[in-house]
Each structure stands twice: as structure tokens, then as C-alpha cells.
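Example complex used in Figure S2.
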Amino acid sequence: MNDDLDQNLADSLHRRAHEAPTDGQHFGDVRRRVRRRRQRHMAMGVAPALIGVGYLATRPVAEPTQSADSVDSTWLGDATTILPAMASSTTWLGNELGYRCLAMSGYDLGDGYIYYDVCEAGPAMTGDDLFDLQAGVPFETMDTTTMLGNYTTTIEYYPTTSDNGGQLPTNVATTTTDPSGSAFDPNSTSTTQVP
Amino acid sequence: MHDPLLADSRVFPTEVVVRDDIEQAYRRMYPSLVRLAYVLVDTPELAEEAVQEAFTRAFGKWSRIDNVDAYMRTCVVNACRKVQRRRLLVRRTPQPSIEYGALDADHLADVVRSLRPPMREAVVLRYYLQLSDAEIADTLNMAVGTVKSTLHRARAQMKKELS
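Predicted assembly (358 residues):
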């Protein structure tokens, strides 16, 4: 039975095999397949590189970042105004107390002009003393003058005995003069007019 | 693009020698390999496709092949296996039946065709190509013992089908 089956199987498979047409394709078809295969492999290798280069070429360029110490350049929306370098002067006020008020370098873009702020403790002054100053504890009349370009702003602090809730003294008179010496109102100055 | 396949023999003599070798082998082996593939995949188109694909894959490594006949036989069997796998996937989706109506009625061959791929390949290699167990094992990349058991199970299944 096994021999019969084996022989019949062999005969059947040979008959089936010889039904196959064997005069079809030529070696040129293999060559074409090889070429297509190489092109496909090459494309698979090159495509990621092209995508990378394309991304680099079309990516959005980031806005230039402003470093912390570049106070002379400020972004003002659509128009950029290059502001003059500001004189950051430190003036000692009330030497006997040992504190100083810094005329801070900066532009208050909301008001369109400069801001002055912050008194800090000197070597002989503690944090409590500074708080007292900001709370309006009496201190001697003093003034500080800051040169900003050709504009001069003089701030005068007057003594007070009232507690204004931890804010800087409110009874401050600020006088700003332009290069000709005339009085100049900083509140009326727009941002683009800052010298 | 420069293609070494079409290169001048004075510039690329090695490529041309390789090309001649594989071309001669192609002419010599093509009919027998197509017949083998035809028994495995049932349609002449797929059989020719399998043989072409086998030669395409062998092209780049032709100079490193020791036993060309055995290598190409394995390549063709693998290509046919790929075709059968693809066909199984296609059968999972409702599609009109193809190719079987074109075959002549041959009950034994139909039984062979109904075998699962490893059994069918082992049966074809044994009964059509008359290969030994060791050669079948080499071609199908399996142990000789596995070939023997596979053939035994295939024969038992065919007997059951025929009885």
C-alpha cells in the first residue's frame, strides 16, 4: 500500500509539474527586479535624510531671546525701539542710616517711562530698617539725581510720620528736565519718545 | 543612475562574470524550478513570480553561493511559502476563488494541495524531486527527525483522505 501510494504520488506530482509553462520570462526580468529592489532600498535609506533636511529647512525660526543684561533692547510689539543705555546710578541716601536707594535701570512699558524703585540696606542697615523706610518711617529729606541720556530726573523724598502700608513713601516729588533744562513730564511721554 | 548590472566588462569584470554565471544558471534551472514552484503554489503566474523573486534575492550574493542548485531550491520553496502565506491572508477576507478551477482533476494532487505548508513542501520534495531526508531537512531548514515525522504525518493524513 505504501509503495503504491508513493508511486502514485510521484506520478501525480510529475504530471502536475509538467503542466507548468516554462517558457515565460527571461533573465531581463530578474535584472529589472534587481534594479527596482536597489532603487527601493536606496529610497528607504535616503527618505529619512530628506525628511530631516526638509524639516530643518522649513522649521519656524525661533524669536531671538533677550539676555538678562541686554536692557538697551526691548520688544515693543510690532515696532522695536532701541532704547539708550540707561545710567544705573547708585546714590547713597541718608548716610547716617546706612541705606541706599537704587535708581533702577529699567523702563516701565506700562507707563511709557522709567521706574525708580527699591531701597536696599547698606552695611549698617538691617532688614527691619529697610521695612521702616518703605513703611514711611520718618527719615531725613534727601534727593537723588539720575541721568538718563540727556534727561535728568530728580526725586525728592520727604519725611513722613504715617504708615502707608509698607509701600514706598508717597510724598515723593519727581522733577524731570529735558536737555535744555526745561521741566519735562514723563507721564506724557510715549514709549517711542523715550530718549 | 549608474547600474553595475549594465556595466562595461572592462570596468567591472567581476560583475559581468557574476552576471554570466547567474544568467547561465537561470537558463538551466528555470524550467525545473518553475515546475517545483507550480506544484507548490498551483498557478503558473505565481510559480514564475516565485522563481523570479528567488533569483532576484540571490543576485547580490551569487558569487558566495557554494551549492547553487540546493540554494536556489531553498529560495524557491521559501518564495512559495511566502506566496502561500499571502494567499492565506487573502482567503480570510471574502474574495472570489481563483486558480483551482484551472487545474486538471487529479485526486491525489488535490490531496497534496490540501496539506498544510510544511507537510506539502516535504511531500513535494520527497515525491517530486526524490530528495533524501537529509536534503529535505537542509532545504526546509529543519532537523532530519522532523522531516521523517512530518512525512509520516503527511502520509497518514493523505491515506485518511483517500480512504
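Residues 70-150, 157-171, 188-195 of chain A have pLDDT under 50 and may be disordered. The first helix of chain A runs from residue 2 to 17.
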